[in-house]
Structure formats: structure tokens, C-alpha cells
Amino acid sequence: MAEEEPKKVTETVNNVSEPSPSLPDPAEKAVAAAVVAQPPPASVEEKLEDSKALVPIVAKEVEEEKKEGSINRDAVLARVETEKRMSLIKAWEEAEKCKVENKAEKKLSSIESWENNKKAAVEAELKKIEEQLEKKKAEYVELMKNKIAQIHKQAEEKRAMIEARRGEEVLKAEELAAKYRASGTAPKKLFGFM
Fold it and tell me: Which of 8, 68, 133, 189 has the maximum number of C-beta atoms within 10 A of its C-beta?
């Protein structure tokens, strides 16, 4: 409170051209008029002297204001109460903003967690399907290899049968040729010439 009282006094001294309602005594008005009536200082030394001259006036007015302390005290108490209320309101506002931010962050993190869980589930399902497809592919590849092996086996059997039949027919042709040679007769068909 003591810091604010000199501030008012200096404001009163600085605003001398305007009549101040806070100066109730005619003596204070005379002092203020004396301060205004002084000519403006011309040099630095005179400014220092003027500032020295103002110090006792300020001290005098502070003493005079102490006489009416209950009025100033009520004003200062009212101002302190207002500042206290404003600081409480500001603290409440900050707390509410913090709550809102925390709530939003919590919801955002839960959404992110939900998203990650769903993505992981879908990726696991995709991996499972890929594994099933790989397994089916392997089964089909094995089945096709078995079919190819079976076809190759059948082809080998047919080749063997043809080779066996050819061997039999060659033997049969040699036997007939030997028989015809032995009997001296000619075959009835000669390569379609007859």
C-alpha cells in the first residue's frame, strides 16, 4: 500500500494543470500552484535543484494523505480485492483450459490407440490370409508337380509300350523274313507295291 501512495502523489504533481479531486485542503492547492508557477528549468543543475525541491513536497503530501488514510485504505482494499478476484478468475480460466486440453489429449490418445489396435488386427488378418494363400499355393504347387510326375510316368509307360511293341514287330518281321527265306516263297504284300 505504501508503494501505491507515492505513485498517486507523483501523478498529482505531474498533472498539476488539471484540478485534482483528491486534494481537499486549500494548502495543498497552494503548494500545487506553487509547483506549477515555477518557470521551466533551463539547465541540468536547475533540474537537479527542482527535483530536490519536489521531494519535500511529495513527503508533505504523503503525510497529509495519511490523515485521510481510511478513505485511501478502503480504495486500496477494494482494489486489492478486485485484483484478488481477477487473479482467481484468471487461475480458474487457466485450470479450465488445462482440463479441456488434458481431456482432448486423452481422447486423442484413446483414438490413436483404437486406430493402432484396429490396424494391427487388420494386418494380422491379412497376414493370416496371406499364410493361408501361401499354404494353398504350396498345396496346389505340390498337386501340380504330382500331376506332372504322373503325366511323365504315363508318357514313359506309353513310350515303353511302344518300344516293346516295336521290338516285338521287328522280331515278328525277322521271323517272317526267315520263314519266307526258308520256304522260298515271297510275302503276299510288299510295301504296298503289289
Answer: 8
